[in-house]
User: Fold these one by one.
Assistant:
Number 1:
Amino acid sequence: MIKIEQVKDITPEIVEAFSILIPQLTAKNKIPDKKSLEEIIETKNTYLFIACAPHIVGSITVVVTNTPSGSKAWIEDVIVDKDACGQNTGEKLVSFAIDFIKGLNVSSINLTSSPDRIAANKLYRKLGFILRETNVYRLTI
C-alpha cells in the first residue's frame, strides 16, 4: 500500500531517498542535501510530497505562483523509484497533488515532461492534462 504525505521535516531517510531519486530524474542535477531540502519545505507556496510503501518510493513537488493573470500551480520533479514502477505510484502522486491543488484557489495546473518519458506523458493525458502548443525556454545560469 502506498501512502502519500507532505514533508514537514527533513529526516535522514528523506535525504537518503533523494540521493536515490534525483539521479533517476536527471543525471545533470546535483543531489540536494538536508539544508537544500529544508529550504524547499520552508519556501512559501512550495509543497513537497513523498510516496511511502513503506520506505520512500517517489516524490512530487507543487509550486504555486501568483501573477497578474492569476494564480497557477506547477507540478515539478515527479519521481518514482525504478523499483516501484508498475505499482501506480506516479498516478497516485499526481492525483494526490491535483486534489491538494484544488484547495488552493488556482486557475490552472501546469507541468512539463520530456517527450521521451512515454509512460509519464500517457499518465498526464489520462489524468486530464492537455498538451499545449507552446515553447519552453530555459536559460541555464
Number 2:
Amino acid sequence: MKIIADLHTHTLVSEHAYSTVDEMVNSAKDKGFLALAITDHGPASSDGAKSVHFKAMHSLPDYINGVRLLRGCEANIIDYNGRVDLSENVINYLDFVVASYHVDAIQPLTKKEHTNGYAEIIKNPNIDCLGHIGNPKFEFDIEYIVKLCKEYNKLIEINSSSFTIRRGSAPICKEIALTCKKYESLIVVTSDAHSKYKVGDHKDALDLLESISFPENLVLNADYDRLMDYIKK
C-alpha cells in the first residue's frame, strides 16, 4: 500500500520537535509524498504553540516545492465533554485538525469518561480525526467509537510512532483497525514525525494493516483525490 500524504507531523514550533516547515516539506517531497499536514501541538500542551500561531498559518502557501501543504493542528482534548484547546474562530483557518488526549493537558480517568470524551469530539464539526487512540492510558469502548466515527464520517488515526513511544499501544491499535475494517470506517496512517528524518515513516502501521488484510479503500491518505475531496468537504 502506498501512502501519498503524511497527516500528523510536528515542526520546531512544538518545542520537543526539531525541523522547520521547509525541512519537513522538502523531506516529504524527497520521499515522494504529494501532501503534508503540519499539526503542531495546541496551547494546552506544555510545549504547544499559542492560538495566534494557528490563526496565522493562512499566510503559508498551499504548495511548497510541489507538495500540497495542509495547515493543521494536533488539538488537545481538555475535558470529557468535547472541548479542545483551540476556539472555532481559530480552527476555521485550518485544513486538518487532529484531536488527541495528552496527559499534560487532561488526566486519565475511567473508560466511560474517555469514551464520552471521544464521542463528543466526534460530534464536534471542527474536528477531522482522532489522534493516537491506541494509547492504553485512555481506555475506551472501541466498537462504540468506531461506529460513531463511521456515522459522522470522522477519521481514526493509526499512528506509527505509538508502537514505540506509547508502550502497549500495538494490540489496541490492532483491535481498532480490525473494528474499522468490520464497520468500514475510514482511517489515516500517520508518522507523528517530530523531525524531517521521520516524515513518512509509516512502517509499523502499514505492517499492522497488511497483517490483517486491511482494505486500501478505507485508508484515506492512500489516494490523493479522495483525500483532497475529504478536506474540501
Number 3:
Amino acid sequence: MSGKVHIMDHPLVAHKLTILRDKNTSVKDFRELVSEIGMLITYEATRDLPLTTKTVETPICTAEEPTLAGKKIAVVPILRAGLGLVDGVLRMVPSARVGHIGMYRDEETLEPHLYFCKMPKDIAEREVLIVDPMLATGGSASAAITEMKRMGCTNIKLMVLVAVPEGIQRVQTLHPDVDIYAGAVDSHLNERGYIVPGLGDAGDRIFGTK
C-alpha cells in the first residue's frame, strides 16, 4: 500500500492559511486559525472512516441511518506546536483519545530526538492521526511515525498545515504506507530549515513565546 498526499483544495483553507502566514496576525487569532484549519483538514482525513447503520425515530418515521462503525481514533500531537491542532481534531471527533510525543531538533544536525511519549493503553488498536503544523525536513514526523509503529500501530496518518516537497519525500521514502494530509505545499526549505514562504515558527506563534 502506497501512502497518498492529500492537499486541501478548498477556499476556506486557502483563505485561513493566508491570514495565518501574515506576520502581523495576533497570537489569539493565530491559535484560533490553527484550530479551525485543523478541523477542516480532519474532515478530509476522516473521509474513509467505516460506517454501519442504526435505527432512529425521526419526527416522521423509523429509519435505518448511517453511523460511525466504532473505529477508535487517537490524535497524537508532536510537542509542542502540534498541541495547537488537537482542539480542532477533537471538535470533529470528540471521542478520540490523545497521545503525546515530544521531539526536539538538534540545531546542528537538524535531526530529531525523542524526549517524551505517553499514549493510550490500546494505541495499537487505534487509527492514529499524528498532527504537527509544519512538515519541513520531515525528520520529526518520520521519527514520530517510527515510534508509533514500534508500539504496534498499523493505521497511521499525518496531518499538517504546511508542507514542502523535501519533507513529503522523506516521509514517503521512510514510510510509504502513511497518508499525508496538508493544507498547502510551499516552495522549499531555506538554509536554516524553515519553510518558504511558510508562516514562521508555529510553536512560538501559537504560544506567544517570541
Number 4:
Amino acid sequence: MTVAFRVVTEIAAPVERVFALSLDIGAHERSMADTDERAVAGTTTGTIGLGESVTWRARHFGIVWSMTSRITALEAPGRFVDEQVRGPFARFRHEHRFGPSAGGTRMVDEIVFRAPLGPLGWLAERIALARYLPRLIAARNASLRDELERDEDENGDGQRGASSPSAS
C-alpha cells in the first residue's frame, strides 16, 4: 500500500533563498544531524541539480540505511522533485513546492512512499513509518527555517514561521 503525506512550513525569507537552501547538500546534512545523515556518493557538496543524484547514509530506528535519490524535476524557484533510485523503499517520491506567503515563503513537501516486503512492509508503514517520516520532514524543515530566519534576522526583517505535517 502507498502512504502519502504533506508538511507545510511557513518561512520568513524570500522564496528564492528557501528554494536554494533546500537544494544545498550541507544544509540538508545540518538539518538531519540527529540521524547523522551524510552525503556519501554522487553530489556530496554544494547545490544538487536536475538529473543529479546523491546517496545518503543515516541512522534510523537504530539501523544504518543508505538511499540514493535523483532530482527528477527542477523548476526554479517554485518546485523540485527527488525520487529514490536505490534504497530501503519500494517507492519514495518527494515533491518540494515553494510559493510566496504573507510572511515570506510557504514551503510544501508532499511525500509518497511504499515500503517493500508486501504485508510486512504494510505493517511497517502503519506501525512506524507513517508517523516517523512526517515528524522527520517537519524537523528538517524547522532546521532550514531556523537557519534562514536567523540569516534574515541579521538583516533586520525576519519573522518566525511554523511547520505542520498532515496526512493526505
